[in-house]
Amino acid sequence: MGQKISNLSDISNLYNSISNIDKGSSIDNTINSFPKLKRGFLFLNLQEYYRQIENHNLILKNYINNKTPQNIKVILKICLTLIFHSKKPHFAIVNEAVEFSKKFKKHSLINAVLRSVLRNKNSISTNGKNISNIFKRCCDDIFSNERICSHIYESFFHKPRNYQISVNDIKDTIYEKRVSYFEKELDQNSFIQDIGNFEIINAIRKIYKDKNIIDICAAPGGKSILLHSYGFNVEAIDKSQRQIDKFKQNINRMKLNIKISKKDFLKTKFPSQYNSILLDAPCSALGTFRRNPDVISKIDEKKLKLNQKSQIEMIDKSLNLLNKSGVLVYIVCSFHPFETMGVIDKIIQKHKTITVENIQSNKMIKKENGYFINPYSFKDIGGSDIFFVTALKKN
Ligand SMILES: C[S@@+](CC[C@H](N)C(=O)[O-])C[C@H]1O[C@@H](n2cnc3c(N)ncnc32)[C@H](O)[C@@H]1O
């Protein structure tokens, strides 16, 4: 997307962003192609668009039918998001939407639906809690506990709290002398990371016997920085220059001495073996649904199977690089069975010398081959993303 987008209306910027996100991009990457001034508005409304998607589908059933083209439904859902969840004046929303939809020759329909919605505005419920059944099934499969699942569904409809993690123990934190809320200013010795992410490193650092570690998918660096702060000597690699640049910004700001190299793990030959390996593998990011609500609409079994294939390939290679008695920790910010237990089940069947280590944490739920962060255990301080972690020992 070029600079010209700054001159387009909010509706067309949102529409173009959604086309991009639905094709696979993330909300963050999409808004980064817009001028800075536009990003805040787009970020909040894109998040809300995906958070409300099932509620808005239900509302629209009263105004349109199955034959209404998909792109017109998207425009209408953008308008519902702006009408019910932003301060943008209603007349401007209708004018922009009608103007924008002229190219699809459906502006009369858009005009009629929006005027009708505005007439009925007071009788339309804006606090529906509809959420996709596929997502609910994933939660039920993993947590099978009504209290935890209700907390997860509820948390989908609220903007998550942002945390910052300090690289030193400090007073006045909300958790484990390291975690505070991030309000506006980032503390000099802190970086932004979810509390569940912190909990994983806090728990698994005790499992590694050797503090020389390779972090295979390291950027933007949250886990490498935390391990470094706990005395690990981290060799960080990542294949994405854009992610590495973010990593470097963080370590330069915090004046830390961690070396990161641009390498594709799967294509690199390593001269030596390791005792400690961290693999924070690429995944669907389903566990970050609170800040990336679009991930729910993107749950797709075919794509998840492909993710699983590349996750297994990365674990296979990591296990080959691991010395006897060494430990590989596998993490994903997902709780889809394909990317979590499904991956480890296949690894255990294939590599007979591997055992799953115990992880000590009262913030996680233990399953046969690994652990899930239990977001309910952080409920009183703002909740957390959901991660899967397992520690594999080579015998
Ligand atoms: C979940 S993110 C890692 C987050 C990071 N560990 C942190 O805590 O900030 C996954 C990373 O894997 C990287 N990646 C994906 N495939 C890779 C490969 N074949 N080799 C190296 N890095 C890869 C991506 O560029 C991305 O930065």
List the helices and strands and how they pair.
Elements: H1 10-22, H2 27-31, H3 36-51, H4 53-60, H5 70-85, H6 90-101, H7 107-119, H8 133-143, H9 146-156, E1 163-166, E2 179-181, E3 190-192, H10 195-204, E4 212-215, H11 222-229, E5 233-238, H12 241-253, E6 259-262, E7 274-280, H13 294-297, H14 301-321, E8 322-332, H15 341-350, E9 354-356, E10 364-367, E11 370-373, E12 388-394
Parallel strand pairs: 4-5, 4-7, 5-6, 7-8
Antiparallel strand pairs: 1-2, 1-3, 8-12, 9-12, 10-11, 11-12
Helix pairs in contact: 1-5, 4-5, 5-6, 5-7, 6-7, 8-9, 10-11, 14-15
This protein binds S-adenosylmethionine.
S-adenosylmethionine binds next to helix 11 and strand 5.
Detailed description of the structure:
With 395 residues, the chain is an alpha/beta fold. It folds into two domains: 10-123, NusB-like (N-utilizing Substance Protein B Homolog, Chain A), CATH 1.10.940; 163-394, Vaccinia Virus protein VP39 (Rossmann fold), CATH 3.40.50. Helices cover 43% and strands 15% of the residues. It contains 15 helices and twelve strands. It has helices at 10-22, 27-31, 36-51, 53-60, 70-85, 90-101, 107-119, 133-143, 146-156, 195-204, 222-229, 241-253, 294-297, 301-321, 341-350; strands spanning 163-166, 179-181, 190-192, 212-215, 233-238, 259-262, 274-280, 322-332, 354-356, 364-367, 370-373, 388-394. The strands form two sheets. Strands 4, 5, 6, 7, 8, 9, 10, 11 and 12 form a nine-stranded mixed beta sheet that branches. Strands 2-1-3 form a three-stranded antiparallel beta sheet, with no helix packed on it. A hairpin with a 2-residue loop joins strand 10 and strand 11 (370-373). Helix 1 (10-22) packs across helix 5, helix 4 crosses helix 5 and helix 10 (195-204) crosses helix 11 (222-229). The radius of gyration is 23 Å and the shape is elongated. The N and C termini lie far apart (51 Å). Bound molecules: S-adenosylmethionine.
